[in-house]
Amino acid sequence: MVFRFSINYFVFFAAMATVVPYLQQILKMHGFSASEIGFLLGVFEVMGVFGPLLIGWFADRIGKYRSVLLVLTLGAGLSFFLFIFDIGFIGTVFVLIFFGMMYRPIASLTDALASRTLSDVVKQYGQARIWGSIGYVGISFFYQIWGFLDSSSSYRIVIVFTVIMGILFISNLSLPQIPIINSSGDTKDKVFGDGKTKILTTVFSLPAVFWIGIAAAFFIKMGMSGYYSFFSIYLHDVYNLKGISGIWGLGALAEIPVVLWGSRYVVKYGVAKMILLAAVGTIIRMLLYAIVPPLPIILIGQLLHALSFGLLHVTIIVLINNQINAKSRALAMAIFGGISYGLAGFIGSSLSGLILDSYGFSVMYIFCAVIIMGAVFLIAFFRKVGVII
Q: What dihedral angle (degrees, nearest 10) is formed by the CA atoms of 48, 49, 54, 60?
């Protein structure tokens, strides 16, 4: 089973290695300003609020995770194909809404499926998820050497992504369907019982320590939005670089050991300390970008992705695994994806775009660092009042 998920993560993150660095480039090729790109990418991120939540709830309810993943993968590939055309600002908004609704839930639903299928989640999740990082790194460096995507043509980017999503569709076919069986032998939803229980009831029943962790992750991811939305443009405009995928890949390479072995340290030292470490590392990273150092320093700063993404993600996985019942983990993962990525991304990306248009990259990245301080203050406050996560 670990092997099946390893392949799935590898292919999905190969697709992500195409979307993350190059979607912002596609939008710039279509002539949008920084504030427009920030808003458009914010729309894409806000679909991470509703998409994972609704899809996670629906998948929990019907129990057919694989079928849902197949539909999402097909929809994501078809909608991204529309970026070949110049459809204007409003048309791009609608395409990003649909693309986000299809694409964003894939990761959280795959994580939820893995958590309900693997026999030892804390150990085996890292073994499978590590292949996602390997896929991201490998494809990023392949793009850097190949140079095929480093042109002024969005057509090439769209075609490559569509092909990868086709491969992911085939990979999803190997995943388990896992119908949920109740004591009577009927296929029912254990999260929502007889179907009369509402989704909000389950949401409000989740423990307080879960919400504290999600809120801290929100501030970190909001601050990271200046990186996710504008780092490729930053490298192009400030350092005059065309080949940027390898620099993105360096960040993903740094996260591999953390994803593989980080969970044991989260268990040993606690969720709060690991979130604080992730926050401090991310603040340092944003301030490095703000001072516009020599390019070798930028490359060193990319190693902090081990904390900004790798450690934070593993920490939240451990938090959910320890605090949330197995029957509600898909919903919990959807909330994590929706709030800490989607909502944080929408607000952060939109504000970062406005600041970038008015004040430039340095002020934007200082703003991002200040936002991340919210996670530090949040954890410090709850530890002071005796709430430990």
A: 80
